[in-house]
């Protein structure tokens, strides 16, 4: 499998990102295995006398070999192999980091939305707390009014009882007054009759004293 991967690296230019230059052109490749680790040995022609970005046969000098770890390879294209020498992560990792950064930005935006919702909820909560305190104050006032109402109701019932007693007393007095009027009328009648009888007796006594006829009683 390593040899199959290695053959994909032949006939390509090698570019070093840390050094910022073209290292050479790969003509052959071997794989060296040590334990469970392996490295590529690039056999390549070094480039010299590069000028004005033009490529010609005189640019290639003697061949040389370099060892490249798989982790040193940032990306492999149709014409070039880009090396990071362990200082630049592979392109897939860079793409993954870009994806992670995008996901992070999305999460940050969601968090900002949630924070805005939390601020609104806090504002609504504070408003509800103020309204609740106002309702509690009104409730306390109503409780005081209820106590006053109960006291007034008790006094009213007491006064109503006293008023009813007064009415009964007035009725009693009116009955007594009626009885007194009757007694007074009877007394006046008796007194009138008694006075009339006394007057008749006096008149009769006077007539008898004078020898006149006695008036009938």
UniProtKB/TrEMBL annotation:
Residues 94-162 form a coiled coil. Keywords: Coiled coil. InterPro entries: P-loop_NTPase (IPR027417). The keyword Coiled coil applies. This is PRC-barrel domain-containing protein. It comes from Thermococcus chitonophagus.
